[in-house]
Design goal:
By secondary structure, the protein is α+β, with helices and mostly antiparallel strands. The chain contains three helices and 18 strands.
């Protein structure tokens, strides 16, 4: 078989017939001996066709194409995904191969045109190799393991935090329990001390005497203060009532009032001022230092009977009526005392009233009752106005 060589010494191109056992060729120009396998071009006599071979000296770092047969499966006829094709155009260079010895068949590259010349619909998606699948599976497994470890770490941290909080709460509870125990012990000690002293009779007597003295002194001073205030107010009211009577006498000189009496008409400790002339009975009272006229009426006779009160006899001969009644103070006036016997007459008819019950009586009963009260009156000492 004929091969074309290029001499490395003089760059002379020549053709030589080399058989399968021949190992060297000689340059006809400079007689330089060359290795028979250092071929630049193969000349095929049967087909008279040249196959360009690229010298291995030019690209010593590249590896020969893996001569794995193309898998004979049909192209998947599905639309191309709308993303750019990840591919580089095939370099338009001859396929690298070792010199073909004997009848070794040279395989032609499957694709003789660049990717850019192929229609998009005819592009076959790259098939993932077993190595790539294994790498992807391992990567996913590692990611899953990392996520599980992260979740486990997060869960452990949460658990540790909750455990720490629980421990802190237990510490606080223990502190509260210790405080409560200390308080209980202190109270128990106090109770025991009191219990030991509780049955000491001398201590009990001393405490009782001190308490009694304290209460007695307290009420003594309180009663004195209250009594002093009350007495002061009574005196103030009496003076106000006397002053009011003086002013009344000055305003009514024709009534000729020259004296008065001090009587407690309602037995409340506060005395009222009573004055009279030949025709009228005048009574002044006072409260909280303010005096007021509580009674002013013409009377026929009046007396005071100790334990019974003020007794007044009124007679109106023109009207042919009259009364003999007991008077009692009611706030700012004097009224009949309904709890005692009171007599009235009108147009010759005489009646007795007691506790709201009216009873007819005779004229003798009426005057006999009046005479009995007047004979038993209490003698009073007048005061000069």
């Amino acid at each position: 078989m004929r091969f074309e060589y290029i001499c490395h010494n003089c760059n002379h191109r020549f053709t030589s017939v080399v058989n399968a056992t021949q190992q060297h060729v000689v340059c006809p120009l400079c007689q330089q001996t060359m290795t028979a396998s250092n071929i630049d071009m193969v000349v095929d006599d049967s087909e008279n066709q040249n196959v360009n071979m690229h010298s291995t000296v030019n690209q010593p770092q590249q590896r020969p194409v893996q001569a794995r047969p193309v898998q004979a499966r049909p192209v998947q006829a599905r639309p191309v995904q709308a993303r750019p094709v990840q591919a580089r155009p095939v370099q338009a260079q001859p396929v690298q191969a070792q010199p073909i010895l004997g009848d070794t068949k040279v395989e032609t590259p499957l694709m003789s045109q660049t990717t850019s010349d192929i229609p998009l619909n005819d592009i076959v998606e790259p098939v993932e190799s077993d190595v790539e699948k294994t790498a992807m599976t391992e990567m996913l497994q590692e990611k899953s393991v990392a996520e599980e470890e992260q979740d486990t770490t997060s869960l452990q941290m949460s658990f540790n935090k909750a455990l720490l909080e629980s421990v802190e709460e237990d510490k606080e509870d223990d502190e509260h329990i210790e405080i409560a125990d200390e308080l209980k012990e202190a109270m128990d000690d106090t109770y025991e001390g009191v219990s030991k002293r509780r049955f000491n009779p001398v201590l009990i007597i001393v405490l009782a005497v001190v308490a009694a003295l304290f209460v007695g002194v307290y009420f003594l001073f309180m009663s004195k203060d209250e009594s002093a205030e009350k007495t002061e107010m009574l005196v103030k009211n009496e003076k106000a009532a006397v002053q009011a009577l003086k002013e009344f006498s000055q305003d009514n000189p024709d009534m000729n009032i020259t004296q008065y009496f001090m009587l407690d008409l309602d037995q409340d400790g506060q005395k009222e001022v009573i004055a009279n002339n030949d025709k009228n009975l005048i009574v002044f009272g006072a409260e909280d230092g303010a005096a007021s006229l509580i009674y002013k009426k013409p009377v026929f006779e009046w007396v005071y009977l100790r334990g019974k009160g003020l007794f007044v006899v009124n007679t109106d001969e023109a009207q042919k009526k009259g009364s003999a009644v007991w008077l009692i103070k009611a706030k700012y006036t004097l009224v009949e005392d309904a709890h005692q016997e009171n007599y009235h007459f009108s147009n010759g008819a005489y009646t007795k009233l007691l506790n709201g019950k009216e009873t007819k009586v005779s004229e003798d009963d009426y005057y006999g009752f009046v005479n009995t009260i007047i004979k038993n009156y209490t003698k009073l000492t007048p005061l000069k106005l």
